């Protein structure tokens, strides 16, 4: 029960932090140099936190912290894919408006289980697939016109922008969820490798974030960010956003380690709904009927997915008990 409560707490905390991060990002807007500096600060914060946690666990019984060159280099793969995703995301914003970008980004709901089947051999039953597809169409419905009475983003404008998209915008917009899903699934595969079951998550994150610092530091140097530092006031604002981003990254890694990438995607979707609710309250606009229906559909889909997963795990455990593996004579 404690484990279930801990997992629920991780999901709730992650959702709340993503909502706050989205609101701050929308309010302050970011240039390429801002993004590079914020992400670099976030990677450094995650690295320091993981290093401190790894150091504190070094003598704990049952914990194995061992440096292996081959395994260390393996962590560079998902880190580089995450780095590519961040930069492709910046390019996508040059060709896509916010609603269209969000619509294309939700394809990760469908891409992730397909990649999980290929890389993790994780079979997903029909009921869970129905829940995933229901969530996808629920998000699609809600994003077409999130706020009623809003002249800045009417449904007709959003629909027209979605169906008339620059080819590069469509390419970048689909690459973002594809990179996100691929990096997440590879990270999950490395984290849950049975050969390293006693390896603590913070030691795994420490190796992952090392490559994140190297990649983003190189980008910051290339853009001249470090040679032209921002003012103290701007630096404090960027530090706050970086702290939120780092906290989200750590909670996301916990979600991947102890749940899976599909549940992580549901967390992101609920955060987007929460952000829209906060925006509607701040601008004195009410959420549209399609948005509310979409939110209800996604909520039901989340419950259905969780129940189906619990039943599949129960059936798998029961089958293993009835047919235990035979040991060789």
UniProtKB/TrEMBL annotation:
The keyword Transmembrane helix is annotated on this UniProt entry: yes
Transmembrane segments: 5-24, 36-57, 69-88, 100-119, 126-144, 164-187, 208-227, 239-259, 266-285, 291-308
InterPro entries found in the cross-reference section: EmrE-like, Nuc_sug_transpt
Membrane topology: Multi-pass membrane protein
Major localization listed first in the record, in broad terms: membrane
Keyword set, alphabetical order: Membrane, Transmembrane, Transmembrane helix
Residue ranges the record marks as coiled coil: none
Keyword Membrane: yes
Compartmental location: Membrane
Protein name stated in the entry: CMP-sialic acid transporter 1
Species this protein is from: Paratrimastix pyriformis
């Amino acid at each position: 029960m404690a484990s279930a409560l801990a997992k629920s707490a991780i999901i709730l905390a992650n959702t709340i932090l993503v909502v706050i991060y989205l609101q701050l990002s929308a309010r302050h807007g970011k240039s390429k140099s801002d993004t590079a500096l914020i992400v670099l600060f976030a990677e450094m914060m995650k690295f320091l936190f993981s290093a401190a946690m790894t150091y504190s666990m070094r003598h704990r019984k049952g914990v194995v912290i061992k440096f292996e060159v081959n395994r260390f280099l393996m962590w560079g793969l998902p880190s580089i894919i995450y780095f590519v995703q961040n930069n492709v995301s910046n390019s996508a914003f040059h060709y896509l408006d916010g609603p269209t970008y969000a619509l294309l980004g939700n394809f990760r709901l469908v891409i992730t289980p397909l990649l999980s089947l290929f890389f993790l051999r994780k079979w997903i039953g029909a009921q869970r697939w129905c829940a995933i597809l229901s969530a996808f169409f629920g998000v699609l419905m809600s994003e077409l016109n999130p706020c009623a009475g809003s002249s800045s983003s009417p449904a007709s404008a959003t629909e027209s922008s979605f169906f008339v998209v620059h080819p590069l915008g469509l390419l970048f917009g689909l690459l973002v969820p594809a990179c996100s899903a691929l990096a997440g699934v590879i990270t999950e595969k490395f984290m849950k490798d049975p050969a390293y079951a006693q390896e603590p998550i913070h030691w795994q994150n420490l190796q992952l974030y090392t490559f994140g610092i190297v990649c983003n530091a190189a980008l910051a140097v290339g853009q001249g960010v470090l040679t032209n530092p921002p003012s103290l006031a701007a630096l404090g604002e960027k530090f706050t956003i970086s702290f939120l981003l780092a906290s989200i990254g750590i909670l996301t890694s916990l979600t991947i380690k102890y749940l899976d990438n599909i549940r992580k995607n549901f967390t992101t979707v609920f955060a987007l709904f929460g952000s829209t609710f906060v925006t509607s309250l701040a601008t004195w606009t009410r959420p549209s009927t399609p948005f509310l229906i979409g939110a209800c559909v996604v909520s039901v889909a989340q419950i259905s997915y969780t129940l189906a997963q619990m039943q599949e795990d129960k059936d798998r455990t029961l089958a293993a008990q009835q047919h235990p593996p035979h040991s060789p004579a």
